[in-house]
Amino acid sequence: MTNFSDIAEEGWVKNLLPKPVRPYALLMRLDRPIGTWLLLLPCWWSLALGWQLNQDQITLLELGYLYLLFTVGAILMRGAGCTINDLWDRKLDQLVARTADRPIASGVISVTNAVLFLLLQLTLSLTILLQLNETCWLLGFLVLLLVFSYPAFKRFTYWPQFILGLTFNWGALMGWVSITGEIDIPSVLLYLAGIFWTLGYDTIYAHQDKEDDALIGVKSSALALENSTKPFIYTVYIITMAGIFLIGWISEFSIPFYLVCLIAFCQLIWQIRTLDLDSPNDCLKKFKSNRFFGFLITFAIFLG
Length: 304
Known about the structure:
- This protein has 304 residues and is mostly helical.
- It has a single domain (15-303), classed as UbiA prenyltransferase (Tetracycline Repressor, domain 2, Orthogonal Bundle).
- It has helices spanning 12-16, 22-27, 34-53, 60-93, 111-129, 134-153, 160-168, 171-180, 185-206, 210-216, 221-225, 229-250, 255-273, 280-288, 290-303.
- Helix 6 (134-153) packs antiparallel against helix 8 and helix 7 (160-168) crosses helix 9 (185-206).
- The protein is globular.
- The model has no long low-confidence stretch (mean pLDDT 92).
């Protein structure tokens, strides 16, 4: 069982922000940006891919503006998602040492104030969304169904990681659509590759809480897979890379793209080969390392 809080004793949130603001920053997980990165990186992939294949439709200045919009949007929507998750899980979080100190579970933020803060985050996110085209508006509203329902899935299925994959990689569709105005094969392949990537890294993450989850009745892929976890992660990571290589092939990308992708694939293999599934600290370390994989794929696509 975990016996530590996932809220750091020290950090910029506690040292720099005014005291009344700190609980809301912690609720958004601003002190732990890995979740924002994992939400944002598929957006960056998609924007890079959309630019590579449609350079006649967008200037570098316009591309930079889209990167800014998606980055701010990812911070806000990750915060909104965490708020929704913590509202759903406030009673369960009280039963687990790692999550008991979260602002809603601990009572630092009331349910009413959390809902009001959620509305603020969604309103600000809407202002970002309205800067994009109408097809993005539709996608932005559709993903709310996943964002609001995701926390419920861990209560009745062992595969909430799949729903998280559908949710966290939505930006792989939206980034492309923000440039082209329509969903096309490259963006769909990128979305699917991202889903399998998420199945891998979030299964690693789920192993941190597997004993606590089993005790309180929360389901996860870690509990479903048990000793088959590593073969499963190998499989989904290989599918992830197959999808990315396929995108490179149909996009007629050059050799540098494949070389950087090979380095990224080695990073995934390193995760699995060195992973200690019975060490929460090591699971968290390997989970966080996925940002470097995401950076490499972004770089590879820009090389094209």
